[in-house]
Predict the 3D structure of the following.
Amino acid sequence: SNGKLTLMKVVVVTGGIGSGKSAACRYLHSKYGWPVFEADSRVKELYKEHPTLLYDIEDSLGVSLRDSSGKFEPQLLAGVIFNDSEALEKVENLVFPVLTEDFKLWKEQNIESRFGLLESATILQKPQLKGMGDVTVLVDAPVDIRMERAAARNGVPRETICKRMESQLYMNDISNGTVECPADFLVTNSGTLSQLEKKMDKLVEIIL
């Protein structure tokens, strides 16, 4: 079966908060039927589903990440790794191999698809995840537009969005043009949803 596995071409779709990467993936999925692997939400599932991942993380950090009933408490983990790059690295060293395995399984389950989408906000900054895709697409928009969108979409206070955006400084640098875009394709999404969809159609033509 290994020869078959290489058939699926994986298109990585990345971008900061409010860039429109999820909207781009939803559109490609609905129009072209390409399956989507949402790396960031999969990680949250894996904390709950994987038999040992959470225990290993707690062990490595030396803290419990559960509420009184033993249920995983994401806020506790966020609190530990926020502003602590060493703790974050420990967690990522345990999470990424599990995520990579999970991604392989997903590819096997979608073996009939010629193309698949890997959606991830942070993949460009994580050398451990290099090589998971064949083509990388960065969906981007100016920081202030991304901020407005994220605040409107989540009904979340702007300060919260600001904090989350601060943890994605690299994405902000790309948006501001202070670092060069490391992706194969850059899709600027500062307009309407239908404009984004037209751009994705063009991109598909190029990729095909």
In short: The beta strands are 9-14, 36-38, 115-119, 135-140, 185-188.
